[in-house]
Amino acid sequence: MVSTTDSALEQDLYRAVFRQAAVGIARVAPDGTWIEVNQRLCEIVGYDEQELRARTFQDITHPDDLDADMTLVKKTLTGEIDTYSMEKRYLDKAGNVVWVNLTVSLVRDHAGAPRYFISIIEDTTARKHAEQQKREADEQLRLLVEHAPTALAMFDRHMRYVVVSARWTDDYDLHGKDIIGRRLDEIASDLPLVWRTAHSRALAGEVIRTEEYRFDRKDGTVQWLRWVVRPWHTASGEIGGIIVVTEDVTDKKIAYEQLRHLAHHDTLTGLPNRRLLNQRLMQSIKHAQRRQQHVAVLFVDIDHFKHINDGLGHETGDHVLKDIGQRLTHAVRDEDSVARISGDEFVVLLESVPCLDNVLPVADKLVRCFSDPVRAGEREIRVTASIGVSIFPQDGHNAAQLLRNADAAMYSAKSGGRDQYRFYSRHMTDLAIERLFYANAMQDALRQSEFSVAYQPQVELSSGRLVGMEALIRWRHATRGNIPPSVFIPFAEQNGMIRKINHWILHTVCTQGARWLASGMLFGRIAVNISGPQIEDGHFVDQVVRILDETGLPADRLEMELTESLVMRHTSTGFQQLQALRDLGVQIAIDDFGTGYSSLSYLKQLPVDKLKIDQSFVHDIPDHSDDNAITEAIIALANALDMQVIAEGIETDAQMRFLCDKGCNLAQGFLFSRPLSAADMTALCGTAGTLWHTGTNDGVPTLPVQH
């Protein structure tokens, strides 16, 4: 692999940081005009990029903060300071106040003249609101403590009332009673043991502070009281009895229970959260061990929930989550638990399961509870879920194992097509471990330049002329050695790394292609594979345009390959992206054709230039009649639709002769060349543009094999 220039790498790194930053970043002209803004800043202030760039930062700054900001701007422009930070307020598009921490640095040109400011904007609105709420809660608690009722009573050594305060009679419902001289246990026959113990200890000289005691008043209300019990002494110094001071802590008790509820429950759905789920799961395991029963954990993940949030908004997404939480709760027994443990992930805990046969109907019921659409206003939203099931004790002996294995089973359900449930197996645990390895290793691979690109030539069968090449990623891991794409690409698609990897491939390939053009090498087009997440990304075409501009590669030198199955799953966004790429001059090819069950009427509507015959069909031609027929049909279809057709995986002269005879235009495979490094490709091609000399043998070109 030929590395990119330092400036290209720096620019690529800057773009990646700029786009993906968790804070707002902007370049601002000295007059306050927004030159460049990232997506996070647009989200903070509620404007899209075009709207924001039509304004200045002064336009959206709160009037009360503008003078302070402008003063610092002037000091920076005059060189009095190099950078500044401040807390300020913006007014978002809706007119709402947005608190931010702003850090500004000035970039000057070589002559020292100001060019632009770099602004880092961190949204602190939530923290500000939280601080305000905390101040309000602290003030409420202070007032509550200041006005808390205090009750006092003195008892003799025999627990007879000596004197009481009015507040005591209020707290204990003793209005109108003659209690002086009467024993406490005559008044309160249900006196708790802790009270009797405290009395004995206080008479021995101790001071005792008790925990809360529940007191049920005659009016049906519940009061929570806390006591301090201490001895009192007679004039002679002897202990004459005890003094009891009580505090009504009912309001504090209620507040504590509310906080305790918040600590153990999800604020959106009101369901138990991960902490409470773990507690209940551990308790369920203990009960199941004693009773020799089972516990079932069902991990529920909503399919494609991100599409709901991105397409319909987070308010609609929240509505869906609450609705799903209610459905799951109604689908299980009262003694079972439904918890929301993260964004779109729920866990159903089935306690005291006598046998495994009891779990299957519940799993079926949970899948069916998604069959009806969720109504959000006038809109009906179809939702499905993937469910993984683990069972105690077969699949784990503690809460962490059961949750991990149910999660692994859920991923298996997703891989199997979603909208279903799967039970755990040992293989899923190994897969989860591998998934974690690849999630970390691929990040390191990008940083440490472990990835490289190999290029496999594509030739015109009739002439042997090089007409293009396919770019193929290679990974040499530090300890595992060469890892095939068929192994790591599926993991990259699952963990989201595929976007970064494909971006790296595209930039690397375009850079290399531009170098080849500059050297005079004629190579046709370079084909790059694209993934589902890329084609569904509404900004993918913009990304391609930027890379072409940065590297200088003409668009007509680039080809995008996507699999037939991916094409068949496309959305309107994906179709628009393909059409926009084709309008740029980028050629579109369908890879693995013949394996995805395409609709022919649908295929002719797609912006596609080339069909690529899957190597599984090429492998057994001309000796297998079925593969012969399929291959002939694909070639005929491509010709009828005025598309080029290329066969991959050609390894023998017989395969090449058959394809050439049937009218296949283009080919690639080991018969011509294995994938080559950029340096080897350069050496092989030279500048002539022709790799293979053609001869004729019964009208069929003969091409020498490249090893």
SSE order and pairing:
Layout (H helix, E strand, L loop, with lengths): L5 H15 L3 E5 L5 E4 L1 H7 L3 H5 L3 H4 L2 H15 L5 E9 L5 E12 L5 E10 L1 H22 L3 E7 L4 E4 L1 H6 L12 H4 L5 H11 L4 E2 L3 E4 L5 E12 L5 E10 L1 H15 L9 H18 L2 E9 L2 H8 L1 H17 L6 E6 L2 E9 L5 H10 L5 E3 L2 E3 L3 E8 L6 H17 L4 E4 L2 H22 L3 E10 L5 E12 L3 E3 L1 H11 L2 H22 L5 E5 L2 H5 L3 H12 L6 E6 H5 L3 H13 L2 E7 L6 H4 L6 E4 L1 H4 L6 H16 L3 E4 L5 H9 L4 E2 L10 H8 L9 E3 L2 E3 L5
Parallel strand pairs: 17-18, 20-22, 22-23, 23-24, 24-25, 25-26, 26-27
Antiparallel strand pairs: 1-2, 1-5, 3-4, 4-5, 6-7, 6-11, 8-10, 9-10, 10-11, 12-14, 12-17, 13-14, 15-16, 19-20, 19-27, 20-21, 28-29
Q: What would your notes on this structure say?
A:
This protein folds into 4 domains: about 5-125, PAS domain (Beta-Lactamase, 2-Layer Sandwich); about 150-250, PAS domain (Beta-Lactamase); about 270-425, 2-Layer Sandwich (Alpha-Beta Plaits); about 455-700, TIM Barrel, CATH 3.20.20.450. It contains 27 helices and 29 strands. The strands form 6 sheets. It has an 8-stranded mixed beta barrel, surrounded by 4 helices.
